[in-house]
Design goal:
7 strands; four-stranded parallel sheet; alpha/beta
C-alpha cells in the first residue's frame, strides 16, 4: 500500500506527534495527500523542551493545527516506579489522552509514526498502541527509517537528519524510581552537551553518577571539553564517567 492509498481510505485523522523524524514525515504526507489532520503533542516530564519547540516549528511550517496536551505521567505509580514494562503504562496514558482529545474534536482515527524498521513484537509501548487501535501508516506502507529520512530531506523538512531520541525516562535504570529532579538533571546535562556540538548521545544515570555515551567520532569533542563538562554536570551528579563502549 502507498501512503496516498492509506489517506484515501482514512482522509480524516489525528496524529500523535512527537516532533521527531517519523511523525513529522507522516504529517507532511497527510498534508500532501489532502487529508484533514490535526497534530497532538503530549507534553510530559519525560519530554525535553527542544522536542516541543521542534514540533511547534514543524506544525507551523506545514500549516497543520497542533494541540499541546499536558499529561501527568509521574502521578501514575506503574510509571514512576519504573518497572520493565513502564512504557506500556506510559504509552497507554499518552495515547489515551490524545484519543480523548481527538474524539472531542471529531477525529475517530488515531495515527502514530511507527515505521517498518521499528521492532514491535515485544515492546510494551507497541502493545498499548495496539490496544488503543492506533494505526501506523509508515509501517503499514513498508517505509523504513532510512527511506523516511531520504524522503524528508527531499521534501525540505528540517527534521530529516534529527537523531533518534528516546524519552528522558530511559536514562534511569529499570527498577529505580523516576522523579522530576532526576529528569531535570538529565535534561540539563544533555542540553549542555548539545550546546558543545555533540549529537546522538545519552547521559545515563548510575546511582548518583552520570554516564556519558557518545558515538566514536565524538569522543575527541568530549575530551576537549572535559573540564567544562565536569564542572557543569557535577552540579547535579556526584561523579561523571565516559562510556568507552561507544554508541553504534
Amino acid at each position: 500500500m502507498e501512503l496516498k492509498e492509506f489517506f484515501a481510505e482514512y482522509p480524516k485523522a489525528a496524529v500523535a506527534f512527537s516532533g521527531g523524524v517519523d511523525s513529522a514525515y507522516l504529517l507532511y504526507c497527510a498534508r500532501q495527500c489532502g487529508a484533514q489532520v490535526r497534530a497532538y503533542y503530549a507534553r510530559s516530564a519525560f519530554q525535553p523542551e527542544f522536542e516541543l519547540r521542534d514540533a511547534l516549528r514543524l506544525a507551523e511550517q506545514l500549516e497543520i493545527p497542533m494541540e499541546v496536551l499536558p499529561v501527568d505521567v509521574l502521578s501514575v505509580k506503574e510509571i514512576a516506579d519504573n518497572p520493565p514494562d513502564r512504557c506500556y503504562f506510559c504509552k497507554g496514558r499518552i495515547f489515551g489522552a490524545i484519543r480523548r482529545a481527538a474524539e472531542a474534536d471529531g477525529f475517530s482515527v488515531l495515527l502514530d509514526g511507527t515505521n517498518a524498521s521499528d521492532e514491535t513484537q515485544d515492546r510494551p509501548g507497541m502493545r498499548a498502541a495496539r490496544e488503543l487501535a492506533v494505526l501506523s501508516p509508515l509501517r503499514i506502507c513498508g517505509l523504513t527509517k532510512e527511506e523516511i529520512r531520504r524522503r524528508s530531506r527531499e521534501a525540505g523538512l528540517f527534521t530529516w537528519d534529527k537523531p533518534a531520541y528516546a524519552c528522558l525516562a530511559t536514562r534511569i535504570p529499570a527498577g529505580e524510581a523516576i522523579t522530576g529532579e532526576k529528569l531535570r538533571a538529565t535534561e540539563a546535562a544533555e542540553n549542555f552537551l548539545a550546546s558543545l556540538g555533540l549529537r546522538d548521545f545519552r547521559v545515563r544515570r548510575m546511582g548518583d553518577a552520570a554516564k556519558i555515551q557518545v558515538r566514536q567520532d565524538q569522543l575527541a569533542l568530549v575530551l576537549e571539553n572535559r573540564e567544562r563538562i565536569l564542572a557543569e554536570l557535577k552540579r547535579c551528579y556526584s561523579a561523571v564517567v565516559l562510556d568507552l563502549e561507544v554508541r553504534g
